[in-house]
Amino acid sequence: MYHLKTFNAIASEGLERFDKANYSINESDNPDGIILRSQNLNDYDFPKSVLAVARAGAGTNNVPVTQCAENGIVVFNTPGANANAVKELVIASLLLSVRPMIQGANWVQTLEGDDTEKQVEANKKQFAGHELYGKKLGVIGLGSIGAMVANDAYRLGMDVMGYDPHVSVDTAWSISRRVKRAKDMSEVLKECDFITIHVPLLDSTKGLISNKELAMMKEDATLLNFSRGEIVDVDAVVSAVNDGNIAGYISDFADSRLLHNDKILVLPHLGASTEEAEVNCAKMAAATLKDFLENGNIKNSVNFPTVEMRFSSPYRLTVINKNVPNMLGVISSLIAAEDINIDNMINRGRGDFAYTIVDVNETSDEKINRIIDVLTENENIIKVRAIKD
Ligand SMILES: NC(=O)c1ccc[n+]([C@@H]2O[C@H](COP(=O)([O-])OP(=O)(O)OC[C@H]3O[C@@H](n4cnc5c(N)ncnc54)[C@H](O)[C@@H]3O)[C@@H](O)[C@H]2O)c1
Ligand SMILES: O=C(O)[C@H](O)COP(=O)(O)O
What we know:
Rossmann fold; 3 domains; 13 helices; D-3-phosphoglycerate dehydrogenase; oxidoreductase; D-isomer_DH_CS
């Protein structure tokens, strides 16, 4: 029986993948797995029982990812599962920034008398706008969301320029060849009428857009931030907007300093809040967590490598260790010392950590437990599990 703990509302389509015979949800103080959305776990006291955390979403800045790795906790996210929802909101925001639809619609509601049509025709000029067609959009971060935004903005007739120094090969293939690759971020900042940011919040991206970057932007340019509030220096962007150095700011991250300003549109973190995205994320998070708990396979982790192997033996040992020399030697010689045959084995390292799956042709709990006890005492080994087929 595995025990799970959830934070935030996780779509039932995901949770129902955990069959009741083998899983309990929110019934134990010692969960094996955690599923969450934006709940901040950075100061959370993780129970020792936790083996994995699945973020039903893209950003994992609300989880202490490195600390989890040090404690042998695998952190997953759901790459791309909510990208379409964010893309649609970005496109809607671009349209809202050039067409004062909300202001016009609100004004219509204030009209009195029965000559509504006459009043509308006489006054609609104040809500005239511009078109996106032919304007230049800069996309900073060409991952799942950025790539979709770039492609669809191009289809709307915009000139699109993208910047991403670490773009993945898969994503690069998905981006239209009509999207120009910028050589650095300043090229995007200086040339574009709209700039939209789609990077994760990391130490290297905190304050990515501050006074210096805002000063490079055109006076009539609009900045959009659907990534994380901390990526844009709020005081700097408010000053840039108020001083007329840029035309406007659209953010999905509320902050009191951004409120009550006609040139700033703030949304209540709605990027991924469509039913479809919530279901996609919950299903993907459930699938990866289940595969890890039941089979020890790792896919879509942000702190461990992808390591997957079909079960081929009665027993599977999984080992999380520091990425130092001779760990495979230590593991395999202990198994050999118990006169056990290795059927299949896979190992991958990522940064300071590594993960190994070993399928062994053995059925004796006693022998397996002896191996686990010795491995657990090794200073370079963080966590060992035995999983029965
Ligand atoms: N508003 C929302 O509700 C919402 C929803 C989903 C994601 N997000 C945020 O958007 C972020 C991106 O999501 P995604 O699914 O596209 O992630 P992703 O991992 O697919 O793409 C991120 C891209 O950013 C690039 N990048 C990293 N540092 C960069 C830098 N300094 N300059 C340029 N590019 C850089 C990476 O190389 C990668 O290609 C998430 O990490 C999350 O914080 C917000
Ligand atoms: O990083 C993400 O996926 C988004 O910020 C979504 O957050 P949410 O799951 O709280 O809507």
